[in-house]
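Incident review: delayed structure delivery

Summary: a single-chain prediction request sat in the queue longer than the usual turnaround. Root cause was a stuck worker, restarted by the on-call engineer. No data loss occurred. The affected request and its eventual output are reproduced below so the record is complete for anyone auditing the incident later.

Affected input:
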Amino acid sequence: MSRRLRALVRPTIRTRLALVYGGVFFAAGLCLMAVSYGIVDHSLSPSATGGAVARFVAYAPAGVIPTPPPAKTGVQVGPPPGLSAPGSLSAPGPLGEPGPMGEPVMATAPVSPATSGAVRGGLQLLITDVRVATLRSLLWTWAAMIGLMAGAAGAFGWLLSARMLRPLREITGTARRLSVANLHERIRLDGPQDELTELADTFDGMLGRLEAAFASQRRFAASASHELRTPLAIMRAQVDVALSDPGVDRAELLHASRAVRDAVDRCERLLDGLLVLARSDRGLDAADTVDLAESAARALQLVTAAAAERGIELRSELASASVSGDPALLDRMVGNLVENAVAYNLSPGWVEVTTGNGGRRARVRVANSGPNVPPGQVASLFEPFRRLSAERTGSGRGAGLGLSIVRSVARAHGGDATVVARLAGGLTVEVDLPGRPATD
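Output delivered after worker restart:
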């Protein structure tokens, strides 16, 4: 099917608007014509003209009837049909004295009372002929005018709709030009704040979000490739050293094996973090009742040995905080909070974990005594592979996904995570989730 044929089968918005303009004007004209036709028809109907005929006949007292004056063209008006009998009407005479209503009464000629009914019938027949001719002329005139004006309205609507739809063409053109390479383009539609301007602003906002999402994804891919490349390079270097030295002893092989194992462990942690992050971004498959206090207790138990080795004091105030969600994701979220608080801390130092319900919300808060955090870097800590020392570093303490996973899991459960830098050093991270009454 050709493009022109498709346009005929499915007309454009501009064509439909032009047809609507013409159709509305045509319908309004038909209504106006019907009203005018009814008014004129009623004005010339027998019920409306009967009183005028009766007054005309009643002008003549005692069996006389007024004779109409001569026409200006010099042609005299003859008697109505049925009154052509000799002597029935006299010749027209001059105007007489004013009548009772103030209008002049024409000179009259005597008529027999029997002819008064015929005169009345003749006048009604004359008015009926005038009525038919008037209505026919009115109908044809209105039809011609409505047709012409409807066509003019359609043409005007065609021109006007082109101007009204110009912003839509700009939006369509921008959408067609868009690709990953030029997501920075915007419509920036000028004009009154109407629905089309609101649509363009919404489209610009969507482009801004898409640009930010693509930029974040590019950074994520670059950071993930960098994080994976580092342990792989370590493993390759250790293997190459061992293979290039034919006299390598057992101690050197054990050292190389430990380095490779550490690199493998680092890759596993990174892949586990990426899988958890992807799983939380996908949403929840099932929801169970989870007490954040129990999750925090398990997380504290797992880091007890590492904290004691570094001289970090663990404090806790765990009140019941039940939520509905994925137990594995929530345990991972709380575990990341506690593990980060221990890993990024001072020796000696402290970690404080608090859980509880506030209204209909469940909260878990983890604070530590770590190093000072610049205020400008606090917001970026939730981005993947971000650390305080550098954006991508192989510190070995983690892949930089801990807080990213925390925020992603919190948002997947209808909540959010916030982080605040403490003036004395360290961070306070709080997760707020929709609460659920604990089951007995």
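Verification: Residues 195-244 form the longest helix (50 residues).
Action items: add queue-age alerting; document worker restart procedure.
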